[in-house]
Design goal:
Length: 280
Amino acid sequence: MSQKPKTKLIGIGVIVLAIIVGLIFWQQYKKSGNDEIVIGISPPFAKPLQVAIDEAKKQGINVKAVEFSDWNTPNITLSHGDIDANYFQHQPFLNNALKETGFKLKPVDIGVATHVGLYSKKYASLDAVPDKARVVIPNDPVNQGRALLLLQQANLIELKDPNNHLSNLQDIKSNPKNFNFVEVEGPQTARAVDDADLVFSYPLYLRLAKTMDPNKALLLDDNTNTLYAILFVTRDDYQEKHPEKYENLKKFIKIYQSSPAVKQALNDDIGANLWFPGWK
């Protein structure tokens, strides 16, 4: 009879020990899983970013890139806390997104800036683009404004305010060739070159879609400032809630900005004359 309480205590001790060991393993598992920094990106940024991810891995910094095909989901996913950061948008786009959604997001640092261009498979020059041509531009407010500024630079239209980067179709003062504007989602402009007469598009999306050589623009923008440089963006409270991951994110960004291998990947993927560093 005296052995039963002892046996019972031993059983309880084994259970408690198992719970403690399980908790230790669970904490270690969570810790190992939580040190991974997940960055949401658009597909054109994938290859150069992966080069930086591989280099960061050698320094003990774990980063994973998740691709999104549209320009809305990365901010929604980031705001919900499902990813740690995103890398696909410039400051004017972010400003507009915050205005429309009320999300609490902010830039951490700056990445690359790319030129944009006017492209055509049908015509060899802007002068050859006919009256009533179908001209494709992005449908979001910020990139539509950027497209209209480039068309103005080409002397194809005139805007009411020639310096307004948020101009829309209603802000066109003069359209002497009576262009018919077709609005599509920004990433889809790269595929529109097969059908439209003239298309505003992005070299990196054209290269990804393989629809046209991005170096064969009829006109590239002359913008060399960092207004449209792509940003690394996080939630407002990310540094406070995840200080260690935030510091690793900063270290990863420095690798992206300074690595010769990343620079070569950007040259190969975008084109050496089609991008410039936004951090300089």
